[in-house]
Design goal:
The protein is an alpha+beta fold and about 210 residues long. The chain has a single domain, classed as Glutaredoxin (3-Layer(aba) Sandwich), CATH 3.40.30. Helix content is about 45%, strand content about 10%. It has a 5-stranded mixed β-sheet, sandwiched between helices. α2 crosses α6 and α4 packs across α5. About 10% of the residues have low confidence.
C-alpha cells in the first residue's frame, strides 16, 4: 500500500490469495526490484540484512504475513531478518508504536499475529491508546507496563530511527523488503508474494557475491 491510497484502504479489508506463479527468467532491475542510488551503510556483523517495512494498518501486510513468516523460518545463517513499522502520517503512528512497545517488552512473538488479527479479522480500530491497552490486557500483558513503554523515550527514539531508515530506502508503500541497504522489492513490484520472496533471495545472493 502506498502513500497515495492508504487512506482509501483503511477499511482493513484483506486481499485475496495470490495466483500461483510459474518459473520465470532472472529478475529485472527497475521492474522486479530497484537499486538504491545512495547505498545505506551497514554494520559489520557478517550477516546480510533483510528488512520488511510494514504497517499493522495495512491489509496487504496482513495478507503477506503468513507467507513471509514461513519464508523467514528457512533463511540461511548468514541472513538477518527484521521488521520495521512504517508511519506515513499521524494516524499510522499509534500502530507503529504498538510494534515498538511490544518489541521493547519482548512480547512480539506472542502478539504480532494477534495484533494483525484484531485489526483485520476482528475489525478493531487500534488508533487510540485506551483501545490498544485493552487489547494488551485481554492477552495477559500488564496494561500499566505497556502504557509506560508505549509512551517511553525509547519507543519515540525507535520510531524516529524507523522513519529515517524508511526514508533512506525511499519507501513509499508497504509491504516492502529492503536488502542490505542496496536494493528493495515488494509484492506490488513483482505482482506476487512468492515472486517477491524469490527476488529477495536473488538479491541476497548478489550481495553475498559482492
Amino acid at each position: 500500500m502506498n502513500r497515495r491510497d492508504f487512506a482509501l484502504q483503511l477499511a482493513f479489508a484483506a486481499t485475496a490469495a495470490p495466483a500461483v506463479v510459474h518459473a520465470q527468467a532472472a529478475p529485472v532491475e527497475g521492474k522486479d526490484y530497484a537499486r538504491l542510488a545512495q547505498p545505506i551503510a551497514m554494520p559489520a556483523t557478517g550477516k546480510i540484512e533483510v528488512v520488511e517495512f510494514f504497517g499493522y494498518w495495512c491489509p496487504h501486510c496482513h495478507a503477506f504475513e503468513p507467507r513471509l513468516h514461513e519464508w523467514t523460518q528457512k533463511l540461511p545463517a548468514n541472513v538477518a531478518f527484521r521488521r520495521v513499522p512504517v508511519a506515513f502520517s499521524a494516524p499510522h503512528e499509534p500502530y507503529q508504536k504498538i510494534f515498538l512497545a511490544l518489541e521493547a517488552m519482548g512480547q512480539l512473538e506472542a502478539m504480532h499475529r494477534k495484533v494483525f488479527t484484531a485489526i483485520h479479522v476482528q475489525k478493531q480500530r487500534l488508533d487510540k491508546e485506551a483501545d490498544i491497552v485493552a487489547l494488551m490486557t485481554a492477552n495477559g500483558i500488564d496494561g500499566a507496563k505497556f502504557t509506560e513503554t508505549f509512551r517511553s523515550f525509547t519507543v519515540a527514539s525507535k520510531a524516529k530511527q524507523a522513519r529515517q531508515l524508511a526514508d533512506a530506502y525511499r519507501i513509499d508503500g508497504v509491504p516492502t523488503l529492503g536488502i542490505h541497504g542496496r536494493y528493495f522489492t515488494s509484492p506490488s513490484m513483482t505482482g506476487d508474494q512468492d515472486k517477491a520472496l524469490r527476488v529477495t533471495e536473488y538479491l541476497i545472493q548478489r550481495v553475498a557475491k559482492g
